[in-house]
Design goal:
homodimer, Rossmann fold, 2 domains
């Protein structure tokens, strides 16, 4: 396990984040469970402020930050991490600059601006926006790496503490795997509290950097990461989460664009919650490996609900075969 | 105020419901507020189990019920009240029969069945289903009137206690007005705790029984109640909520089908929450009277999120002018 990040850091995060958020519901869905053949629970991270799990990390980071010599923070994002830092900066009364790539989800952009952050558009994808954001750092602005930041991972890991509180008998947790903070956080918690719980990361087939790296046991970058699950659209594993994930994760699964779209629709119909692409991949994976999960207690993380309306509309009008 | 229902009953409900549910978020939305010209807060009743405020009443009723001579409960519903009783019966381990009209929201029907209730389809609308449900009552099944039941109203009223806890400076609360339990509950609470808070009920123009009765100061039944807001599709005011609402409500507003549809879309884009028709009328009304609400603290109740997919799809494909 990485030396920069210990279970104790998760407990420290737990001490501060509930000043601003509440634990999210872990809900059993009978209709979904009947279909899948296992006891299916959805962890509703979409019920958090900003509608995504990322806020746990943002609040933890900014609460612990000494603001003495800092005018603000700067980062790059496809939207949810950006909303998280913008919202947390607003709570702490500091400035915030978020770099997003061109053509980013317009509703995520609008939300970032609604939290008083400065939105800067640059680059053709997340990694180009990220490289650019590092160049914009000035003396009194702190750069926040979206993935290699221990406080973000420790904050996000509180999600798994809540799952173990609500369902100690959980067998498997299925989580979206993009930058890697959410999965790394889950691993830190189950390693400490119950290493028998299986952690399965889910990537988009079109953005499989962690999957390929894990399969081949070496860090692999992909040329593109063009998936409808914008929160998973990264072309590489990142150092800190990678150092935790590669040696500890039980399995990484990839899902197709169609499986993601159909899972968004299935979640709509059975739970009446909105899932963005990344928020739906856990269900897609659960459906894919349901034969292996029979009768088990399975938590599927609905990590975020910020699916823009035009994308949802096109999903509804082009997808007919619901699993 | 009605003698069968006092503020004390709301406090008794408060004592029991939080064993099974958590307070719902009251969230400020800057983007929406900028558009509307007032401080707009959404009360997320869609985050409750069953995705609707009704569960507050169901849990309160069944918790307080002596189950000694009762095998189960029976009621009629368009879906959310039925889900509430089915879910609460499941928690209490008793049987439950729900009568819904023909052609009811299929996803609400599926949810009712997923909570182990018996679903019975009868009648062309809510009031026909309700009349039929009363005939089905047998010795050991308790009939629960969907609206004239003090324990339901007292349970639902906890919603307003939470609002006053989170935002004591609230000026106006906009609530959907269908059967009347939600509005009656809000009135009981503000009358006791802060009578300066304005309570505004919102009806669909196509189901205006309370509106017409209030305007004309006599109970008026309508011939039909055919609105997309299925939760508001009632043809008459009911005795108990009516006795509280008619003499105490500050205003009743009606909104058109187009205003409801556009509000569903606006809520999607600015909050990424799914609102069913009844859940969106508060925003529709807020938009309609925004000139009167300028700079005020306004809470809009998102009462439920069980909008079936086909209805949402047709809204998306037919509505282009977003307010």
């Amino acid at each position: 396990m990485n030396n920069n990040l210990k279970f104790k850091d998760v407990l420290l995060a737990k001490k501060v984040i509930y000043k601003h958020i509440k634990p999210t519901p872990l809900r059993h869905y009978a209709e979904l469970s009947d279909y899948l053949g296992f006891n299916g629970y959805i962890k509703h991270e979409n019920h958090l402020p900003t509608n995504s799990f990322k806020i746990r990390g943002g609040i933890n980071l900014l609460t612990h930050l000494s603001k003495k010599n800092i005018k603000g923070v700067i980062t790059a994002s496809r939207g949810n991490h950006g909303q998280s830092l913008a919202y947390s900066s607003m709570l702490e009364g500091i400035n915030c600059k978020i770099v997003v790539p061109y053509g980013n989800n317009p509703e995520k952009n609008a939300a970032i601006k609604s939290f008083n952050a400065e939105l800067i558009e640059y680059g053709n994808d997340f990694d180009e926006a990220r490289t650019y954001s590092e160049k914009l750092v000035t003396n009194n602005f702190l750069y926040v790496h979206p993935c290699n930041e221990p406080k973000l991972i420790a904050g996000v890991a509180t999600q798994t503490l809540e799952i173990l509180d609500d369902l100690p008998e959980v067998d498997t947790i299925l989580l979206p795997l993009g930058g890697g903070t959410e999965v790394a956080g889950a691993i830190i918690v189950v390693k400490q509290l119950n290493p028998k719980i299986k952690i399965i990361g889910v990537q988009a087939e079109l953005a499989p950097a962690y999957y390929l790296s894990w399969k081949n046991n070496s860090i692999i970058h992909t040329k593109s990461a063009d998936t409808i699950a914008d929160g998973l659209a990264t072309k590489m594993p990142y150092e800190l989460p990678s150092s935790i994930i590669m040696e500890n994760i039980n399995e990484i699964i990839t899902v197709t664009e169609d499986e993601i779209k159909q899972s968004i629709i299935k979640l709509y119909k059975t739970t009446h919650n909105l899932a963005e692409g990344a928020g739906a991949v856990s269900l897609a994976a659960g459906n894919k490996i349901k034969h292996k999960l029979k009768d088990k207690n399975v938590v599927m993380i609905l990590s975020g609900g910020n699916l823009d309306l035009e994308t949802f509309k096109s999903i509804l009008n082009t997808n007919k075969n619901i699993f």
